[in-house]
Amino acid sequence: MQWTLIVPLKPLARAKSRLADSVPDAFRPGLVLAFAQDTVAAALASRAVRDVVVVTDDTLAGRELAGLGARVVPDGARGRGLNAALEHGAVVVRKERQAAPLATLNADLPALRPKELTRVLLRAAQFPRAFLPDVSGIGTTLLTALPGTELRPLFGGASRLRHRSSGAAELVLPGAVSVRQDVDTGRDLRAALALGVGPHTRRAAPHALGPQGPPPGDRAP
Fold it and tell me: What are the φ and ψ backbone dihedral angles of 128, each rounded to 5 degrees?
């Protein structure tokens, strides 16, 4: 089974405000774009992924991510939030391919490894609807829905509990840390750097963090 991944992305100027304590405002949009570029590139390299659909109204991000091979669709949710954007993406995909298996993926997984994502998606294929919690154990980084099953995204805040309460199966895969290590804070960014990030984040992070940040490592395949 090959999945269509839906990746939502806010306008870069408004994204990742919680990084403000670690990353100056002038560098944050570029860093957020780098996260998304590494996430999309790694996702497209997974053998379990058919294609990636990015939902965004940001012109620069759309152009750069399309250049990597993603399909970019405008955020038809008209600013109604992350879950509405994901639902819009799901409608767009299933209008064209009703039997498409869908997965949402956060755009802030710069350490994402294609092989780990493949493992997670292979496991998710065993359930009508499933999710993967983030490293904090509070949020969610990935949600899946097989053909014939609605996506029903419930992201934001304590989404792990909401997704579990909604009947989605919680995926437990030791070792799939790169699929769970999202970046909301400076501490998260340093954890991702320690795992090894993709080339775009590797170039952007030293400028964004300045002398306080460790040199980013290479991401494994």
Answer: -60, -35
Q: Examine residue 218 and state whether it is found in any structural domain, yes or no.
A: no
pLDDT bucket at 47, cuts 50 / 70 / 90:
very high
Q: Which residues contact 99 (CB under 8 A, 6 or more apart)?
A: 147, 148
8 Å CB contact between 104 and 7? yes
Q: Is residue 13 included in any domain, yes or no?
A: yes
Could you tell me if residue 217 is inside a domain?
A: no
How many other CB atoms are there within 10 angstroms of residue 209's CB atom? 22
Over residues 168-177, the pLDDT tens digits come to 999 999 889 9
Look at residue 220 and tell me if it is in a domain. Answer: no
Q: What is the mean pLDDT of residues 102-110?
A: 97
* Sign of the torsion formed by the C-alpha atoms of 59, 55, 189 and 187: positive
pTM summary value: 0.92
Q: Which residues pair with 4 in a beta bridge?
A: 51, 102
CB 144 within 8 A of CB 120: no
